[in-house]
Structure formats: structure tokens, C-alpha cells
Amino acid sequence: MSGGVDSAVAAARIAEAGHDVTGVHLALSSNPRSYRTGARGCCTLEDARDARRAADVIGIPFYVWDMAERFHRDVVEDFVSEYAAGRTPNPCLRCNEKIKFEAVLDRALALGFDAVATGHHARLAGGVLRRSVDEAKDQSYVLGVLTREQLSHAIFPLGDSTKAEVRAEAGRRGLTVADKPDSHDICFIADGDTRAFLADRLGASEGPIVDALTGQVVGTHQGAYGFTIGQRKGLRIDRPATDGRPRYVLSVEPVSNTVTVGPRTSLEVRDIVGERPVWNGPAGEPYEPIACSVQLRAHGEVYGCRAQLSGGELHIALDRPAAGVAAGQGAVLYEGDAVIGSATIASAV
Amino acid sequence: MGTAYLDHASTTPMLPEAIEAMTAQLRQVGNPSSLHAAGRRARRVVEESRETIACALGARPSEVVFTAGGTEADNLAVKGLFWARRRPRVLLSAVEHHAVLDPAHWLADHHGAVVELLEVDDRGRVHPETLRAAIERDPGDVALVSVMWANNEVGTVQPVRVLAAIAHEHGIPFHTDAVQAVGQLPVSFAESGVDAMTVSGHKVGGPIGVGALLLARGVDPVPVLHGGGQERDIRSGTLDAPAIAGFAAAVEAAVKHQDATAERLTALRDDLIERVRRVVPDVILNGDPDNRLPGNAHFSFPGCEGDALLMLLDAKGVECSTGSACSAGVAQPSHVLLAMGQDGARARGSLRFSFGHTSTEEDVDRVADVIPHVVERARRAGLT
Asked: Hey, what domains does chain B have and what are their CATH numbers?
């Protein structure tokens, strides 16, 4: 229970359904004040109080579990090292994989619980993960990394409701968090300034910005880790491109600390290789290519594709080109609205 | 299915005589500082309560300063004596309650105090030589000494009388937090020789939100709360006559039955220790096996986390405590256990069961029934 409206209503629903429910708030920072910025995050002292109050109203026991060390190691440090390696991680996805449905789930199972329920907007029935009926709030993408085993111990009570319905229900149930703003951004970066957060941890190191078409150095930057493939803003290139078109980040090379830029057309890719594949849907593993669709970032566009597992990698051939596909993001495969598998994007051409 | 409430050290149910005394006063009007008849009536209740408490605790009525609880009394003693004495060193046992430690650390951060924590042994006891050595490094520089009568977590009883005598050799005021001791141990303010002593209402069967600092004649801390000067100009705030009446009734009853209570709680406690040891052979009893509060059993369960044990026991209707301080609900390893030389893992795997006037043999049965399963579960979850 983060202290937000979704997990509060989720807890209320399963308690009402007759489950023996215990509310758990995760303390994700050993110094809760350090993450404190009003209602932005999900791990402030105020959020812990809101979660406790919601549990009181629902009438379930409530405990705070200290996951600060695990969170720091598996999410925050991973986030920093992924950027340092020139990739663009999704920490929410990693948090679900390593914290909520690994550290928390393992502990819960050991203590005698059967499942972990969360306020994610996604449906789960018969072991199949599906998109929420509220497409705008759908979170199946950040759950797509979960294994069948993890999903077998997960409950998502909100998937059949829209966010508006959840808020209204919170109000009816007397949960004071009904009007609390949605959390956005990355919870452990209090001010939302990811580049400054990374600079603090990785240090500044000047390197070239190279134009892919001409091979010329067209600017400098203070650390390649600050850039994401597809990024256009904040490049501060000091001369116009030869073709007169805007420049986008095409690649980030941490070893040489080089950022390569080019026209939008150079961003387009059709073939994606994913590592650490997870096959968690109803269908068998696709050692022969199958037709399905893929989502390449949170709330991103969905592309038709053919996907195939081979050599421990997931190969995805898109039906039409996609731009701004960044290594480190999740590629989540769907059949209709059902998740069938996922992988971490390793490369795209 | 009822519950086994074994957390009397955090708060104990109100005694019937305290409820009666308090509710009788709740129906009355009158500010004890008012001069009219209603005020005089309320004043009489307060003064009779003061006399009752003084009599029960071996003090003079004029030595009783009412406060809004133990924390306020501790703050008044530590800050007030520090300010009154105008000397830097504050000597505290390393196992004090946060209501003593935190004001001292705050004085260090904001008022130039130098806080020195007196070491304890592995049973949690302050040795008289430790205090003597600390004082004698510079006796003229010590503002006050504070060592609790009995520890709230592990129940260890301190040699308060001996320690106070050492402080007095150098004319240094000695404060003791006796919140856990009253009603369980014989407590006499005069005989102990201490200069200041904290007592709390709700730990002895009185209401929450009332307490007292007993202050020997001539010991005058600088006030923490300024205002009407109701209590000897040392403590301001309208006196809470109903709560004070309930507090006095509870102290009187608790002290009157202290002998019998101690005997009964010791028997329950020893039975619990024996039965837990029987079913969890590697359990460790923390604190002093002999000099401990009758109602206190404090264990470490190797390989378990105290929070997990507490949650599982709560689900089985056993209410106890990890005895550790919380910030945002995240348990830190207990400073008491760390001061006793325990490692972090053992400190985190600890649990306090504390008995009180409503405890019965059925409570012990309940713990003995559920503890093997609970420990096994918690062990599986491990130390995360």
C-alpha cells in the first residue's frame, strides 16, 4: 500500500471479497525524508501515514516492510549502472520484477501468505495478464516482466475498473486518499531531474556529439549517460545540420563517451533483439515465428510484429518501422490485450 | 477467541479504582487555579492526589510536579537541570529511553551540551565504577546524571541508589526514569537518594497523558513550558484534575499491591521463559536473569526478524512488542541491545513480552501454543 488511491481500493476490494488481508507499505529509503516532495512520490513519511490510515478504514492489519536496501541495490543502483552503460532503464518495471514480486512475494510466501495484491491497472485471470479496461492507465507493460510463477501469486483487483471508477469508489468507501494526485516520474528522484541525479552519481565528463551523416563533431556534452535514443531536446548543437533537419540522438556510446546524432529517418528500426526473455502468456514458447504485437516503452505505441525465440534471445521483426527504440527498455509482446512474453531490448536496427 | 495482551510495558489497562476516580472528576467543573468554590474543589482533588502519590512513593507532597506524562517529565529533568546548572557534560546510561536520550542529544546539537553515554555490561547494567570514572574525568563540568530505574526494553534494574550516591559525592544532581519500576518494584524517592524521578500514569494503571517529575527540595530545573506557573513555577499549564485523580488512585493501588503483583508476574514470566525455551531451544533471554522487572521477558530468536514475529503473533492474537524505536514505521535495531554488545541481526530478532495486572496463565498458554509455528515461519522468511 503506497499511500495512494489505487492500492487502497485494491486492498479494500480483496478484503471485502473475504480474503485474509494484511496491508504492507514498503519503506524504500532508509532516510524517508530524502525522497520527500509533497505528493509526488510513493515513499514519503506522509505516504506511509496515508497508507496506514487507509488500512485503518478498511479494517486490516498494517505493517511497514523495510525494503530500502533491496530497493537501493536492485532498482536505484541498477538504474544508474544501466544509464552508465548507455541504456535507458525502466525502474518501475525493475521494481515489479525484483521488489514487489520477488523480495516482497518471497517474504510473504515464507510468512504464510498466498499472494501479493497490488493496485496496478491490469487484469489477471486464469494466469493470463491483460490490459486494464482503462487503456490510458493500463500498467500491463510494467508487469510484463513477471514470470508465470510470479503471476500465479499475484492479484490485481483493479483491472476491470477505470481510474475514475477507482477514485469514486475510494470516496464512497471513506478513503481519504480518494483525491490524492497520481504519482508520476521516478519515485526516487525527488525533483524529477534525472540528468542531475545521474550527474551526482556518475560525475561529469565532457565528450563529443558526432553527426552520423558527416562524421563531424557538432557539439559537446557533459556525460553520454545523460542521453536517450530518440532524444531531441537539450542537445545544444552549435551549428545547423548539413541537411537543415533537426537532429536526434541515434546512439550513446559510454566507452568513448560519444553521443551520435542524426536525422529522424536514421532512428527508424525494424528488427529488435531482446535479452532475458520471459514467456508468461497462455501460448507456448515461439521457437517458430509467431504474429503478435509489441509495446516498446511505457504508454508507447503498439506495433504489429513477428516474434521468435532463438539462442536465448527474442527476435522481433516489426511490420512497420519504429523510432526511438532504446536499449534497456522492455519489449512486451501482446496477443490482442493479453501479455504473452517480454524481453529487455538489447539492440535495434 | 480473545487476545493475549502482553505489552503492558507500553501501556497497561486502567485499574477500576483509577477509572472510578477519574470519571467522578470528569463530571465536575473547576480550574484548580481558580479562587472560587469550584476552583477550590478542583484544587483539593489535585492536592489530595499529590499527597497520595507522595505518600506511595516516599516523597513529600511539595516534591511532586505534575506533567502531561513521562516524556515531558524526562524533558524537564534533562533540559531543565542542564540549563539550571550551566555546565556542559550530561552523563546518561547508553540504554535510556528516547525521552531522555533525545532531549540530551538535542541539547548537544543546539546548546553546547556534551553528552556522554555510560557503558552497560551484556546484561544492560551500569557499573558504579563506570559512572565514577566518567564523573572524575572532570567533576566540575557535569550538569546532571540520568540513569533509569529499570529498562523498558530488557527490564534490567539499575543500582540507582549506589549511582545517585556517587553523583552526590560531587554535588551533581541525579535523575532517574522510574516509569517502568513503579508498581513492579519497591520505589522510594527518599530512600533512593535521587534528586529527580519520572513517573507516568498509564504505565501503572492510570490514564495516558499524565505523569509527574518528583523533585527534591532545592532542585530547581529551568522550566520547559512557560505560562501560568501552576506547578512551583517549574511547570505551567492548567492542572488536569480528573487525570491527576486517576493517576493518584492508580499509583496508590499499584504500590499497595506491589509485593503481590511482583510475585504473581514473576511466576507468569518465569513460566513463559521456561515454556518458550522448551519449544524454541535456541532462544536467548536478554537482560539480567536476576535483576529484572517481574513482568518482563525479552527474547532474541536467532534467524528471525522481530517485525515478522510480531506480525505473525498479532495474527494469532498475541500482542507484544519489538521494543524498538520506529521512524515511518521502519524498525531500527534497538540501541539498548546494541549497547549491550549484541550484533545487529540478534538485535533485530528480538521480542518483548511484558505482563501486567490483567495477565493470566492463559496468556502464557497462548504464547506457548503458537510460538513454535510462528518462529518457524519467521525463520523461513529470514532476515531480509
From this structure: 4-12+258-381 (3.90.1150.10), 16-256 (3.40.640.10)
